[in-house]
Amino acid sequence: MQIRYYGEWHVWIYQCTWQIDQNGMMLVHSESPKTEIESVLFNLANKTFTSFTLLNDLFEAELKFEDMTFRLFHTKNGEQWMLFTPENKTFVAGSGSQWDYRDSG
Predict the structure, then answer these.
(1) 100 - beta bridge partners?
(2) Domain extent for 88
(3) Contact at 8 Å (CB) between 71 and 19?
(4) 20 in any annotated domain
(5) Is there a contact between 74 and 15 (Cβ–Cβ < 8 Å)?
(6) Domain count of the fold of the chain
(7) Which end of the chain, C or N, has fewer beta carbons within 10 A?
(8) Is the peptide bond before 95 cis (omega within 30 degrees of 0)?
(9) Which residue has the higher pLDDT, 26 or 14?
(10) How confident is the prediction for the chain on average, in pLDDT?
(11) For the residues of 66-79, what is the DSSP string, one character each?
């Protein structure tokens, strides 16, 4: 499934599971129906990004948007996700506890 929202920052998730919570209640996760995911992502895209937290050395992370939290979970070997910055840099999480920060090229 490819749903794309681009802004000054963007995250590309491809080899990890994830979920989106609102006020502590899970709304959708990586196995939810596409229509449910699209609806929640539309709402998320209209919220202000407030913080990014790495939770452990496997690069599980939380991205906070006002009252919503996007959680990324480590699931297997290989690159888990990428965070693209406004400076044309990319933070690549994985494999395992490895990471890279490079020009987006």
Answers:
(1) 92
(2) 12-103
(3) yes
(4) yes
(5) no
(6) 1
(7) C
(8) yes
(9) 26
(10) 85
(11) TTEEEEEEE-SSS-
Residue 23 has pLDDT above 90, yes or no: yes
Q: How far apart are CA 24 and CA 22, in angstroms?
A: 5
Residue with tokens 């407030």: 50
Please report which residue ranges of 7-57 form alpha helices under DSSP H.
Answer: 34-45
Q: Looking at the domain assignment, is residue 73 inside a domain?
A: yes
Q: What is the pLDDT of residue 37?
A: 93
Tokens representing residue 64 in the block: 């906070």
Look at strands 16-22 and 25-29 and give their pairing. antiparallel
In a domain, 77, yes or no: yes
Position 19 in a domain: yes
**Structure-token pair, residue 59:** 């690069």
* Residue 25, helix vs strand vs coil: strand
Q: Mind listing the pLDDT tens digit for each residue in 43-92?
A: 988 888 888 888 887 778 898 999 999 998 877 777 788 888 889 999 88
